[in-house]
Amino acid sequence: MDPIVEAEVSQTAGRHHLYRGDCLTIMPALEPATVDVMVTSPPCNLDVSYRGYVDRRTEDDYLDWLVRIAGEVRRLMEPNGSFFLNLSGSSSGPWLPFELIVRLRPLFVLQNYITWIKSITTRADSVGHFKPIAGQRFLHHNSFPLNLPRWCSRLHGREDALVLDSFTGLGTTVLAAALEGARGIGIDVDPTYVATARARLAAIKKTQQSLAYV
Ligand SMILES: C[S@@+](CC[C@H](N)C(=O)[O-])C[C@H]1O[C@@H](n2cnc3c(N)ncnc32)[C@H](O)[C@@H]1O
Question: Which pTM value belongs to this model?
Answer without folding.
Answer: 0.84
